[in-house]
Amino acid sequence: MNRVELTKRMAEVGLLPxxxxxxxxxxxxxxxxxxxSDAFERKLxxxxxxxxxxxxxxxxxxxxxxxxxKSIAGRQSKMWVQVTQVLTTDQAMRNMAIIDK
Length: 101
What we know:
By secondary structure, the chain is of the alpha+beta class. The protein has one domain. It has helices at about 5-10, 20-30, 30-40, 45-55, 90-100; strands at about 65-70, 80-85. It has a two-stranded antiparallel ribbon. A hairpin with a 7-residue loop joins strand 1 and strand 2. Helix 3 (about 30-40) packs across helix 4. The longest helix is centred in the C-terminal third of the chain and has 12 residues, at about 90-100. About 15% of the residues are buried. The mean pLDDT is about 80.
């Protein structure tokens, strides 16, 4: 899955605004490192979580993000998400801080 396909899929499941929309462009102009640092101070919005993943630097094939999202029957406000991605230790700790909140 290339980056455009990934961002479109993330928009479909609510992790990013619609691809190429005004909201999407504004979010993509937001510094992802600022969003990451904010995660220690406040709960991030879903779009902000998506922005962090959509901002990944070019990666080798084995480092590409794998994302699987499934709805949960009878629980419209919940979803099951599985992400596989190579991270630095600092990135992993920041992601764990987000998940823990």
